[in-house]
Design brief:
The structure is a homodimer. By secondary structure, chain A is of the alpha+beta class. Chain A has one domain: Winged helix-like DNA-binding domain superfamily/Winged helix DNA-binding domain (Arc Repressor Mutant, subunit A, Orthogonal Bundle), CATH 1.10.10. Helices cover 68% and strands 12% of the residues of chain A. Chain A starts with a helix and ends with a helix. The mean pLDDT of chain A is 90. Chains A and B meet through helix 1, helix 2, helix 3, strand 1 and helix 4 of A and helix 1, helix 2, helix 3, strand 1 and helix 4 of B. Chain A binds a DNA duplex through helix 5.
Chain lengths: 116, 116
DNA sequence: TTTTAATATGAATATGTATTCATATGATAA
DNA sequence: TTATCATATGAATACATATTCATATTAAAA
């Protein structure tokens, strides 16, 4: 009966998919990166930094909300090595360190604007 | 003093970044998409489906865990219009509907494997 | 029509996460 | 050294999310 062929096709597909499935560890890490991009405030921070480094005050100004919340989000992005920081006088300047991530954000931005 | 120029440079940068900042609504939507990719089980489901449609039983087999958990995650992916489904006999076959998302996952997979 | 197979759903629980407030830190300026 | 400015941190709260278990749904088979 027809279902048997389909069944075999699907099993074959499943095998292929499992073969090229990344390790649990890698999948976990991919998930963590996407999670870092899953909150509006963090996305805004990254978009604000895409033209170059900014101090916390300016970042706070750019995304609205209070300074403490921004600092907490900056920490998450830094812990994920998506941004880095350096001191300059009294200010701490943050900047993008992982440009792969920015590529992904740009891609996603394009898809959103052009295709939906 | 040197800090003044830097200050102006940064204000200018901030202005430029804000100018090309997507709307809150768009940023929100980007965040939602990334959130859908932020859990290992969902990523695994999408990777498993990247070779073609599969029924829930096979998906469950592919990612481990129990059927109910998989159904819940399938629902989230479907609500986000990342996957779709159709019935075939007794089975419900799920498949990718948003190939943009798969491009993003592939990109992220490459970055993970090659550059870190 | 009744039974069975495959999947979906709801409630409960546990865990994770963002935000706020108050305060600590740490470098600089006085 | 002391005071001040910019940022970071911790605790508390409120909200979101994943997972499990038990059960509902629905199409197909008997």
């Amino acid at each position: 009966m027809k279902n048997c062929d389909e069944e075999e096709l699907h099993e074959e597909r499943l095998r292929r998919a499992l073969d090229k499935m990344p390790s649990d560890e890698n999948i976990e890490e991919m998930g963590l990166r996407f999670k870092a991009l899953s909150e509006s405030s963090r996305l805004k921070i990254l978009l604000a930094l895409s033209d170059g480094e900014l101090c916390v005050e300016h970042i706070t100004e750019a995304i609205g909300g209070n300074q403490s919340a921004v600092s907490h989000q900056l920490r998450i992005l830094k812990d994920n090595r998506i941004i880095k920081c350096r001191r300059s006088g009294k200010k701490i300047l943050y900047s993008i360190s992982d440009w792969h991530i920015m590529t992904i954000i740009e891609l996603s931005k394009e898809h959103l604007n052009c295709n939906e």
